[in-house]
Write a structure and sequence with these properties.
The structure is a single chain. This protein has 17 helices and 12 strands. It has about 425 residues and is of the alpha/beta class. It folds into 2 domains: about 100-220 and about 310-419, Malonyl-Coenzyme A Acyl Carrier Protein, domain 2 (3-Layer(aba) Sandwich), CATH 3.40.366; about 225-300, Alpha-Beta Plaits (2-Layer Sandwich). Pathway: Lipid metabolism; fatty acid biosynthesis. Keywords: Fatty acid biosynthesis, Fatty acid metabolism, Lipid biosynthesis, Lipid metabolism, Mitochondrion, Transferase, Transit peptide.
């Protein structure tokens, strides 16, 4: 029988903050029920809190959202349907019947994303809520750009977050069994917020507001110091930490105090992203042969994300997360910080903040999700959101798992989709 998870209790200060923030946005409550159709599906998982939405019932906090309803414990519904009978023994799902969802991060955005999703349930409503929360027309920005505005951190993070969850709506419409059989999820950087919404740990509207605060804070932090991110393809001889050390020494010789140059993303074997002061990254490019780097490329981002240069962004995000209701996920969600499963609400709250100044351990996360005994089949994997970068990374991390990978497109128009 499924266990019951108690709700996280917000402090009076957090409740007051929540009400104040949402009043300014003109919305009734920060805690409306999930408006996504898949969020109402009861997860068939042992030991997890599960909720379903009752059509027409009032939402939590008194809000009423399209597709939303009153959250009730799945155990109660099961008991009401079977009476006093003993519940049937839960069938253990073979690995090949399970699915994994991967949510992309910043850098995957492009003008036109979302065009092929507007006819699916709730997607337009998600964009309408986003316009109220964000204060600008995100749908227009996604569909028509300009690209330079969409690429700005404060815009692209909410855009990727929403487009990814809209892709889940499409997947749920086309193949609902994929959603029902999902056993794990992971998101790259901002994609982790979408993964947690999908898993039932965060409310869509609350998470979107947290992403807004996060994106604005990261934009501000990146503008304070000339910095960036360098993609590096190395080889066995490459010593990334030593290269970063010498790059920092070079910056000190230029008079830069407390220079930053460190690994910010672990992508796949022999592939890293190094972030920090621009002078340090330029030094690494000029000396790439010395450090056995096969290829280097500056990324089109505005700052050194996932390094200590993002420290100023941690406090705004920490404050907003105090006013957000966080619950235990229905399914396993893996943290970027340590590549381990989130265990409880405080764990999520703490690591989402720590993620800003910690490297994204994506390679380690792929190993954690797909590691299995020889002969055990792999689950089907779906990348939901713009771009196919996570699929390319998975191919380099685990070729066998990648053979069961699919991407849910967010740009195809309806005519092409129906052909």
């Amino acid at each position: 029988m499924w266990g019951r998870q108690s709700r996280a209790v917000l402090s009076p200060v957090a409740v007051a903050t929540r009400a104040s923030v949402w009043a300014r946005l003109g919305l009734a409550s920060l805690a409306g029920p999930a408006m996504c159709s898949w969020a109402a599906a009861g997860r068939r998982l042992s030991g997890c809190r599960a909720r379903v939405a009752l059509p027409g019932a009032p939402g939590r906090g008194g809000s009423s959202w399209p597709g939303g309803g009153r959250a009730v414990n799945l155990t109660e519904l099961l008991q009401s349907s079977v009476g006093d009978e003993e519940p049937a023994t839960r069938r253990r799902r073979p690995p090949q019947e399970g699915t994994v969802l991967l949510f992309p991060g910043q850098g995957s955005q492009f003008v036109g994303m979302g065009r092929g999703l507007l006819r699916y349930p709730n997607v337009r409503d998600m964009f309408r809520v986003a316009e109220k929360v964000l204060g600008y027309d995100l749908l227009s920005l996604c569909l028509r750009g300009p690209q330079a505005e969409l690429d700005r951190t404060l815009h692209c993070q909410p855009a990727i977050f929403l487009a990814s969850l809209a892709a889940v709506e499409k997947l749920n419409h086309q193949q609902p069994s994929v959603i029902e059989n999902c056993v794990a999820a992971a998101g790259f950087s901002v994609g982790e917020f979408a993964a947690l919404v999908f898993a039932g740990a965060l409310d869509y509207t609350e998470a979107l507001y947290a992403v807004k605060v996060r994106a604005e804070a990261m934009q501000k932090a990146s503008e304070a110091v000339p910095s960036g991110m360098l993609s590096v393809i190395g080889q066995r001889e490459s010593n990334y930490n030593f290269a970063c050390l010498e790059a920092r020494e070079h910056c000190k010789s230029l008079g830069i105090e407390n220079p930053v140059c460190e690994i910010s993303n672990y992508l796949f074997p022999d592939s890293r992203v190094i972030a920090g002061h621009l002078q340090a990254l330029e030094f690494l490019q000029e000396n790439s042969q010395k450090y056995y780097f096969k290829r280097t490329k500056m990324l089109p981002v505005s700052g050194a994300f996932h390094t200590r240069l993002m420290e100023p962004a941690t406090e705004p995000l920490a404050e907003v997360l105090k006013s957000v209701e966080i619950q235990k996920p229905f399914i396993c969600v893996y943290s970027n910080v340590d590549s381990k499963k989130y265990m409880h609400s405080k764990h999520i709250q703490r690591l989402l903040v720590k993620q800003l100044v910690s490297p994204v351990k994506w390679e380690q996360t792929m190993h954690a999700i797909y590691e299995r005994k020889q002969g055990v089949e792999f689950p089907y994997t779906y990348e939901v959101g713009p771009g196919k970068q996570l699929g390319a990374i998975l191919r380099n991390c685990n070729l066998k798992a990648w053979k069961l990978y699919k991407h849910i497109d967010v740009s195809e128009d309806e005519e092409a989709e129906e052909m």
